[in-house]
Each structure stands twice: as structure tokens, then as C-alpha cells.
């Protein structure tokens, strides 16, 4: 895998792990990081050997845009447009990934880091980590998909509270709100993140991909349309080798060994 200036990328059998590692303070988002993130996610989405994608950070997750690269006036408008647009290409790639995506929030996830952190299919958060919308502190609006994800995860009223009051949210509170999947002790964070990722990677990849797509896209359909999509998806899944393996294992009272196709 290519060496990156702002990312650590490792592929261990069927799990690909991306760790954000910005040279800017608190793992903040730079233009280089946004560009590299899009490049690597696109490449991993095209890699048929990858059956789960993990996105996390080194020391912190991501504290938002690197403010030291800005001037604090109207000259920043085109810079922020470029940074947001590049970041959003990565967000779309994560959103449309055929493999399950797990994000691991270790340390602060703020600003642009919120959209990236909450964009996983499953989200593991260390007990000492925090989530904060953060944009009101500098007079800006949300990006990175945060304003799309928040109302879908917690409802419109709660999303407005999180965005407008802009208070830090601890791990246990994030779980209770439905922002993240689970909270784990900091000293077992990496172990749990790896375990969740491996469980997904060992699953029936095509079926999991279709299932997460059905769930995500259900917001855009009425019931009849959703039922039609379910019919198509289950018939398609029945043509996979993983279905044959799962079916055989069921009658043999054994655990299936899925191969991802």
C-alpha cells in the first residue's frame, strides 16, 4: 500500500484500517489529509479482498479543519469550499461503500471529524473520548455530513440541540443518544475495534452490503418501494456462495465459514 503523509493504512487479511495522523494539532484536517483520504478509500472500495473498512485516528480522531492554515476573514471562503468539497468526496465513498464501515472514536471528534466519525455503520467510542459539533465556536456551519447524519441518528429536535448549544458529548451519553454503537474502556479500545471489524469481515459480505443499503435508502422510499427492493435483494443474495454455505451450516448445526461472495 502507498505511503501517505497524513494516514496510516494497514490491511490485515480482510480488514483494512485507516488511521488519521495529521501533522497539524489534535489530528486536524488538512487539504493533504482530505485528498489522501479520498484516494485511499476509493482504492479500498475497489479491492475485492477487503471485507471491512475501519476508520480511526492516532491519539485523537479528528478535531476539524486545521485553522492555522486559514486567515480568519473572507479570503478563507474558497479555501473552505475546496477543503469541504474534497472531504465530501470521501464521505460519499464511505456512505456508498459495499463493505461494512466501522469508525473508532479515540479522543476528540469535532468539526469535520463529527461527520467522519458518525458515518460508520458501527461506531465504537472510547470512554474518555468526546464528540462536539464545534462550528459555532468559530462562526461556521457544519460540513462532512454532520447535518445529514445528526437528525437521522437522534431526531431533528435533539440534532438542533447538539448543533446549536454545541456542548461536548461524552461516550456514555453518545450511546444513550444513539450517536454511537458502544462505549469501551480506553485501554481495550483497539482490541474491541478490531474484534468488531473482524466479526463483520467474517460475515456474508454481499448480504451485509445489501442489508446496510436497504436500511440507509429506506428513508427515501415508501413501504411498497422498500418491499420491492427487499424482494430483489433477497433473491440476489440467494445466488451467492455465502448463502449456500450458510444454508448448509444451518442444517449441520455448525457455524458457516463465509468467503464474502
From TrEMBL:
InterPro entries named in the record: ClpP/crotonase-like_dom_sf (IPR029045), Enoyl-CoA_hydra/iso (IPR001753), Enoyl-CoA_hydra_C (IPR014748)
SUPFAM superfamilies recorded: ClpP/crotonase (SSF52096)
Signal peptide start-end: none
Any Pfam family the entry gives: ECH_1
Entry-linked PANTHER family: EG:BACN32G11.4 PROTEIN (PTHR43459:SF1), ENOYL-COA HYDRATASE (PTHR43459)
Protein name stated in the entry: Enoyl-CoA hydratase/isomerase family protein
Amino acid at each position: 500500500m502507498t505511503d501517505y503523509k497524513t494516514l496510516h493504512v494497514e490491511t490485515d487479511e480482510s480488514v483494512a484500517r485507516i488511521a488519521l495522523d495529521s501533522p497539524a494539532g489534535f489530528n486536524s484536517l488538512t487539504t493533504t489529509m482530505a485528498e489522501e483520504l479520498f484516494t485511499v478509500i476509493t482504492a479500498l472500495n475497489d479491492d475485492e479482498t477487503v471485507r471491512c473498512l475501519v476508520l480511526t485516528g492516532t491519539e485523537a480522531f479528528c478535531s476539524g479543519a486545521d485553522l492555522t492554515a486559514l486567515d480568519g476573514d473572507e479570503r478563507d471562503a474558497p479555501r473552505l469550499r475546496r477543503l469541504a468539497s474534497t472531504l465530501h468526496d470521501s464521505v460519499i465513498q464511505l456512505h456508498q461503500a459495499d463493505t461494512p464501515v466501522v469508525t473508532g472514536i479515540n479522543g476528540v471528534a469535532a468539526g469535520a471529524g463529527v461527520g467522519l466519525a458518525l458515518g460508520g455503520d458501527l461506531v465504537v467510542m472510547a470512554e474518555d473520548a468526546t464528540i462536539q459539533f464545534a462550528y459555532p465556536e468559530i462562526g461556521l456551519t457544519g460540513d462532512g455530513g454532520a447535518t445529514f447524519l445528526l437528525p437521522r441518528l437522534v431526531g431533528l429536535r435533539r440534532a438542533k440541540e447538539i448543533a446549536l448549544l454545541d456542548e461536548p458529548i461524552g461516550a456514555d451519553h453518545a450511546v444513550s443518544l444513539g450517536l454511537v454503537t458502544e462505549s469501551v474502556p480506553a485501554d481495550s479500545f483497539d482490541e474491541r475495534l478490531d474484534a468488531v471489524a473482524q466479526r463483520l469481515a467474517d460475515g456474508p459480505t454481499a448480504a451485509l452490503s445489501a442489508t446496510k443499503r436497504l436500511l440507509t435508502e429506506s428513508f427515501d422510499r415508501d413501504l411498497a418501494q422498500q418491499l420491492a427492493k427487499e424482494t430483489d435483494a433477497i433473491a440476489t443474495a440467494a445466488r451467492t456462495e455465502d448463502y449456500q454455505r450458510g444454508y448448509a451450516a444451518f442444517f449441520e448445526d455448525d457455524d458457516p465459514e463465509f468467503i464474502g461472495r
